[in-house]
Write a structure and sequence with these properties.
This is Acyl-CoA thioesterase. The chain is an alpha+beta fold. The protein has helices at about 45-60, 145-155, and strands spanning about 25-30, 75-80, 95-100, 105-115, 125-135, 140. The protein has a single domain (about 25-155), classed as Thiol Ester Dehydrase, Chain A (Roll).
């Protein structure tokens, strides 16, 4: 565990060994009262934001080889599946992330979201994927991932 101060509602990152063989990055993200819908469940739009907040310490912090993506990365695709309820009292959420697919200009992040205290091998309440593409702001075109970016992302590749 690192001693970095929490940012954007996340706690410092913690690598937790997954039950299965894939390597996963785990972070804790706190649910805010404003994240709830009228039924006291985490709202869909807020869940998408919580997934984004979970990616920040993994991909966009200054010490990451992927930090350049902070200045040029576009969301190309998003899928969220709800398999269970998440409520305010389930905070902090444990969000596990890994790379599902890695290509020349883009990569797909997979997520499993569990309530605080849930067993790592328990069914995830939310599963999701986001396809992110490297983008050159100056040329307004997609760009190839650099070798350090690819190497870092490949470390988290499932399979």
């Amino acid at each position: 565990m690192t001693n970095a101060a929490p940012r954007n509602g996340t706690s410092p990152e913690v690598e937790v060994p997954a039950v299965a063989s894939p390597r996963r990055f785990h972070t804790a993200v706190h649910v805010r009262w404003s994240d709830m819908d009228v039924f006291q469940h985490v709202n869909h739009a807020r869940m998408v934001t919580l997934l984004e907040e979970a990616r920040i310490p993994w991909l966009f912090e200054d010490d990451r080889p992927t930090v350049a993506l902070r200045n040029g990365c576009v969301l190309a695709d998003l899928h969220v599946k709800y398999r269970g309820q998440l409520r305010h009292e389930d905070t902090p959420l444990d969000i596990a992330m890994w790379i599902e697919q890695l290509r020349a200009v883009d990569f797909t992040v997979a997520y499993e979201v569990r309530a605080a205290g849930a067993a790592p091998d328990s069914p995830a309440a939310v599963t999701a994927t986001t396809q992110l593409a490297a983008f050159d702001i100056e040329t307004q075109r997609l760009r190839r991932l650099s070798l350090p970016e690819r190497d870092y992302l490949a470390h988290w590749l499932d399979g």
